[in-house]
């Protein structure tokens, strides 16, 4: 099959994956491998007095019981997990630069959250290891724990780290505090609200799994396991943990069955299996159970935001202020601080707000660490501004669409620097709004609401504009390695975890070089065969990878030009090239690129002095992000007798720039919408006051099913960006960024008919029913 950028080609990788030829983390099985099980802390906070593994060691098939004391004795380092890279140091409230406390994979003195690894059992089989892990005796002294985001900074709250008073990790400010204070104090109208964005889990289809294989002859570690950034992980494992050089460590992601940010974090099992393999002289494999995922993985979100929006009597925005408290958990994970800081600029939305200020404070708690999760701060920011805009509209008795229209940044004002960190390069926000409300039949909503009311239902409609930053300054690499039979292998520094990267590369290579899809294979982020790369996260791959593969293709065309000229006995300047064919200008003579590749392996067919073989390196370096944006319109019905929410329709129009594959873009948007809706309607990681997780399995943690949502209509309004050569804007997070506020606004719009207040997320039937009953009692009392 031929592929081409801009076409809705079927996914290049699906035949391989659907026929069982994928190689996911748990598919790795090496000769002689042993299996590991993790012993985890049953307490949120406790002192470690001792760990007794004798009973476990006596069980059949058990090879080792390893503890933090063994780790220290072997002279290994800490998992640095540097968090985020800031242009200036991230400061604590006292002005001292933040320094990460660091973390050993197994603690020696204290446990700090339920589910923290405490020991590792290695046995001949996974079942034997799991059984033996239950026999490890932990002598732990429980200590008071701070588990709630809202109270972690209280003076009496137990400290997670003694060196951090009031559990404050950092304070970060953006915008102009003085100008904002003046705008708010002078404004005719303000609305203020406290918005709670609850803790959730990414729950990828593939649980985390990793296999360590140490080669004593080479003093070399190979770690197999699905990760988003294998090069960063390799360098950290080498320099910080195993204390060797990076060429002594390889990280092999293979196929990754979903991540959504979770597998961009360095979890402790990865260094543990490498260490255990060296100790035992054989490969060691570990695969999480679903319960281990929910309790032992990094979590996401968990933010409380106090926000104020100021506006005049005509609905013109004057100022905005927010104070955010972000729960970091017990440790700062790899990029774990990023969601709290890097995307605060999205609170500006696509609006002309003249004065803005945000203060973000991170807090330690005795809960699991957090990691980026689809959007990594963007959905949270969009939720805040869009909820406040709806409340301002209600205060003014103004249509929610009209108040947005009055404040949108006009296309002619772009590029536009907001009052809160970002400079938007391009976009047509009003056109996107118009397309979305037309597709949603917004003008006919009143009739639909009246019909629902006649059936005893509360019908609501919610609108949300959204804008986010995708990618950032940086680089990416792609190598095209051609074989003697003319086929090509694409070696890329990106990491696919479901986005269809193989299709992206096939579309460019197929169209530019004239290849059939079957002649193209793709390998990503395998440090054994790829020299350098960054990886995938923050919707960066479409921009970076397309630019890198275009660079490689251009170099391949030029490299092949001299060989083609020699074959055709003309000068290189006499050749034109298009869609995989070199053609002699003004003549019918031509040769295909694949014929040139095959000739490159025959020295007698090459120009004098040309080295046999054919491979090229491509690299992209981009100086800044793009800003995908969109509008979501969601419609719901609520049964007031049960509080159940039925989502009737969800329409969105997104501007993701040039769409390399519109079918994949729509798939990304659909999946993102459901993940955002899951948080609004049902998903919730719940801790009790002692730090025990009450939602530790799918019996208690609710995941959205296809039956929980309506069919999603995804439209587009592409405005290509000039920030990268192909004009693309990231599409990976847009669905989640817009769906959270749109769905919440729809529910709020429905509840407002009865004077009920929108509950905190998740907006479960129980909470909605309670809100309706509270409103009824209040009206009766009045």
Automatic annotation (TrEMBL):
* Presence of the UniProt keyword Oxidoreductase in the record: yes
List residues traversing the bilayer. Answer: none
> What InterPro entries does the record tag this protein with?
Ald_Oxase/Xan_DH_a/b, Ald_Oxase/Xan_DH_a/b_sf, Ald_Oxase/xanthine_DH-like, AldOxase/xan_DH_MoCoBD1, AldOxase/xan_DH_MoCoBD2, AldOxase/xan_DH_Mopterin-bd_sf
Domain Aldehyde oxidase/xanthine dehydrogenase a/b hammerhead residue range list? 19-144
Record key words, sorted: Molybdenum, Oxidoreductase, Plasmid
The segment annotated Disordered runs over 1-23
Q: Where is the composition biased (Basic and acidic residues)?
A: 9-23
List the Gene Ontology MF annotations in alphabetical order.
Answer: iron ion binding; oxidoreductase activity
- What protein name does the entry list? Carbon monoxide dehydrogenase
Q: Which organism is it from?
A: Celeribacter indicus
């Amino acid at each position: 099959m031929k592929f081409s950028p801009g076409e809705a080609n079927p996914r290049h990788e699906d035949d391989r994956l659907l026929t069982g030829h994928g190689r996911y983390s748990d598919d790795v099985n090496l000769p002689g491998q042993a299996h590991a099980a993790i012993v985890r802390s049953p307490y949120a906070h406790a002192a470690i007095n001792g760990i007794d593994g004798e009973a476990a060691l006596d069980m059949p098939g058990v090879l080792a019981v390893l503890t933090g004391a063994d780790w220290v004795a072997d002279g290994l380092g800490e998992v640095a997990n540097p968090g985020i890279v800031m242009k200036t140091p991230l400061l604590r409230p006292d002005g001292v630069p933040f320094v990460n406390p660091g973390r050993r994979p197994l603690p020696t003195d204290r446990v700090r959250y339920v589910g923290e690894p405490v020991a590792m059992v290695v046995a001949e089989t996974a079942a034997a290891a799991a059984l033996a892990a239950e026999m490890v005796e932990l002598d732990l002294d429980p200590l008071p724990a701070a588990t709630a985001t809202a109270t972690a900074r209280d003076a009496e709250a137990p400290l997670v780290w003694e060196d951090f008073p009031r559990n404050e990790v950092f304070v970060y400010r953006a915008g102009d505090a003085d100008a904002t204070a003046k705008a708010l104090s002078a404004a005719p109208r303000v609305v203020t609200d406290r918005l709670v964005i609850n803790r959730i889990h990414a729950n990828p289809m593939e649980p985390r799994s990793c296999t360590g294989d140490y080669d004593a002859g080479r003093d070399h570690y190979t770690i197999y396991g699905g990760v988003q950034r294998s090069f960063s992980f390799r360098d950290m494992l080498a320099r910080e943990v195993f204390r060797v050089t990076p060429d002594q460590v390889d990280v092999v992601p293979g196929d990754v069955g979903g991540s959504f940010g979770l597998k961009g974090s360095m979890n402790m099992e990865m260094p543990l299996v490498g260490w255990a393999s060296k100790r035992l002289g054989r490969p060691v494999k570990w695969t999480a159970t679903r319960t281990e995922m929910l309790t032992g993985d990094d979590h996401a979100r968990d933010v409380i935001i106090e926000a104020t929006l100021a506006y005049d009597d005509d609905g013109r925005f004057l100022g905005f202020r927010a104070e955010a408290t972000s729960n970091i958990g017990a440790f700062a994970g790899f990029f774990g601080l990023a969601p709290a800081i890097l995307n605060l600029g999205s609170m500006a939305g696509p609006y002309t707000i003249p004065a803005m200020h945000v203060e973000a404070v991170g807090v330690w708690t005795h809960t699991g660490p957090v990691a980026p999760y689809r959007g990594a701060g963007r959905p949270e920011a969009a939720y805040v501004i869009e909820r406040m805009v709806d409340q301002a509209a209600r205060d003014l008795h103004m249509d929610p669409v009209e108040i947005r229209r009055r404040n949108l940044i006009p296309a002619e004002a772009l590029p536009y620097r907001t009052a809160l960190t970002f400079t938007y390069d391009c976009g047509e926000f009003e056109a996107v709004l118009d397309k979305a409300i037309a597709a949603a039949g917004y003008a006919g909503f009143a009739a639909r609401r009246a019909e629902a009311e006649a059936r005893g239902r509360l019908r609501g409609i919610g609108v949300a504009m959204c804008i986010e930053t995708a990618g950032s300054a940086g680089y990416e690499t792609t190598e095209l390695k051609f074989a003697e039979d003319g086929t090509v292998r694409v070696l890329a520094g990106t990491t696919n975890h479901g986005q269809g990267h193989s299709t992206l590369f096939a579309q460019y290579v197929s169209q530019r070089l004239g290849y059939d899809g079957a002649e193209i294979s793709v390998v990503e982020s395998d440090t054994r065969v790829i020299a350098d790369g960054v990886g995938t996260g923050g919707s960066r791959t479409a921009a970076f990878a397309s630019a890198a593969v275009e660079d490689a293709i251009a170099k391949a065309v030029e490299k092949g030009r001299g060989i083609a000229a020699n074959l055709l006995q003309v000068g290189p300047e006499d050749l034109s090239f298009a869609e995989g064919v070199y053609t002699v200008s003004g003549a019918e003579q031509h040769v295909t690129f694949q014929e040139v590749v095959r000739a490159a392996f025959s020295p007698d067919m090459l120009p004098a002095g040309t080295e046999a073989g054919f491979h090229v390196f491509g690299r992209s370096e981009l100086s800044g992000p793009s800003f995908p944006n969109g509008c979501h319109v969601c419609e719901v019905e609520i049964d007031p007798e049960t509080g159940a929410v039925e989502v009737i329709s969800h329409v969105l129009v997104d501007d993701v720039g040039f769409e390399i594959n519109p079918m994949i873009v729509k798939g990304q948007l659909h999946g993102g919408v459901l993940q955002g809706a899951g948080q609004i309607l049902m998903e919730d990681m719940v801790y009790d006051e002692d730090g025990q997780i009450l939602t530790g399995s799918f019996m208690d943690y609710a995941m959205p099913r296809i039956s929980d949502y309506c069919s999603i209509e995804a439209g587009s309004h592409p405005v290509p960006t000039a920030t990268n050569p192909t004009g693309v804007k990231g599409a990976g997070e847009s669905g989640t960024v817009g769906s959270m506020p749109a769905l919440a606004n729809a529910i709020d719009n429905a509840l407002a008919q009865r004077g009920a207040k929108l509950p905190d997320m998740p907006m479960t039937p129980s909470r909605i029913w309670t809100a309706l009953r509270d409103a009824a009692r209040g009206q009766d009392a009045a």
